[in-house]
């Protein structure tokens, strides 16, 4: 039995050595080193390109970046797998819109803090694609229009702060029914003043 086992073992080792030497000496050995820009970095760069005066604020958001990853960029925090889990660009004088940000490219986003900026336009429906969001602070911007129905898809969200914007129909909006799925919500009740339910 023992010798049978060691024969199998040495066979496996030889096979492994053979596979390794083939892959290292082969013509295609360098292919795995090919630089690939991650979806996440690409999505963030596209958004940056749509913002005004973004170069001064987001100078670090540029290429080349190690492993095609945005993890070292200003305001970006990644999880252990190197995926973006947090974006914090609070109080960064950002002018622009949220629509050009591809939330579907950021499926691991857990915290998004874009408070105290000058972001305008709608809260895009696509925000529902970041299904793991727990914390969303868009307060003190110039966002307008209706709240997207896709907010109902953010089933894990516990803090939603959309106060101090000029969004429509917040009072009594069932999307903001905190008993349903959100534990903490701040909205604007009158003009720019804000009101939190906790
Ligand atoms: C991120 O920055 C730190 C220090 O600035 C550096 O040591 C590290 O290698 C960088 N990582 C990547 C992935 O660029
Ligand atoms: C974002 O950064 C600001 C300033 O550094 C900080 O006060 C705030 O707590 C951060 N937000 C989150 C969600 O961590
Ligand atoms: C925003 O940043 C400015 C300076 O950059 C600072 O004076 C102000 O206190 C900050 N506001 C908040 C709410 O952190
Ligand atoms: C919600 O946002 C407003 C405006 O930025 C801020 O004053 C308030 O403290 C925030 N509420 C919470 C609970 O974070
Ligand atoms: C919620 O997510 C489901 C599944 O991804 C999708 O089919 C649906 O359109 C989303 N709802 C809204 C209102 O975006």
User: What's the SSE pattern?
Assistant: HHHEEEEEEEEEEE
Gyration radius, in Å: 24 Å
Helix content: 10-25%
Average pLDDT, to the nearest integer? 79
Sheet bearing the most strands, described? 7 strands, mixed
Q: What is the strand arrangement across the widest sheet?
A: 1-2-4-6-8-10-11
Strand content: 15-25%
The first-to-last residue Cα distance is 70 Å
User: Total helix count?
Assistant: 3
Q: Specify the overall morphology.
A: globular
Counting DSSP E segments of at least 2 residues, the number of strands comes to 11
Low-confidence stretches: 11-35
Question: What compounds are bound to the protein?
Answer: 2-acetamido-2-deoxy-beta-D-glucopyranose
The structure class reads: alpha/beta
Report on this structure.
It is a single chain. The protein has 198 residues and is an alpha/beta fold. Helix content is 20%, strand content 19%. It contains 3 helices and 11 strands. The protein has helices at 2-25, 39-50, 54-57, and strands at 76-78, 84-88, 95-97, 111-113, 118-121, 135-137, 142-145, 159-161, 166-167, 184-188, 194-196. The protein has a 7-stranded mixed beta sheet with strand order 1-2-4-6-8-10-11, with no helix packed on it. The protein has a 4-stranded parallel beta sheet with strand order 3-5-7-9, with no helix packed on it. The longest helix has 24 residues, at 2-25. The chain is globular, with a radius of gyration of 24 Å. The N and C termini lie far apart (70 Å). The site of one 2-acetamido-2-deoxy-beta-D-glucopyranose has 6 residues, from loops.
């Amino acid at each position: 039995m023992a010798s049978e086992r060691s024969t199998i073992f040495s066979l496996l080792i030889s096979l492994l050595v053979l596979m390794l030497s083939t892959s290292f000496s082969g013509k295609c050995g360098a292919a795995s080193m090919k630089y690939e820009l991650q979806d996440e970095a690409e999505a963030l760069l596209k958004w940056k390109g749509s913002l005004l005066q973004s170069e001064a604020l987001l100078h670090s958001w540029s290429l080349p970046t190690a492993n095609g990853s945005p993890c070292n960029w200003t305001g970006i925090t990644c999880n252990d797998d190197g995926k973006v889990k947090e974006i914090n660009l609070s109080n960064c004088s950002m002018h622009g819109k949220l629509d050009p940000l591809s939330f579907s490219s950021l499926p691991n986003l857990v915290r998004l803090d874009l408070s105290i900026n000058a972001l305008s336009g709608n809260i895009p429906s696509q925000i529902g694609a970041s299904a793991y969001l727990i914390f969303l602070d868009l307060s003190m911007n110039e966002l307008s229009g209706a709240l997207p129905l896709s907010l109902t898809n953010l089933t894990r969200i516990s803090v939603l702060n959309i106060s101090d914007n000029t969004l429509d129909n917040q009072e009594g909006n069932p999307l903001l029914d905190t008993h349903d799925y959100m534990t903490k919500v701040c909205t604007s009740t009158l003009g720019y003043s804000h009101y939190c339910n906790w």
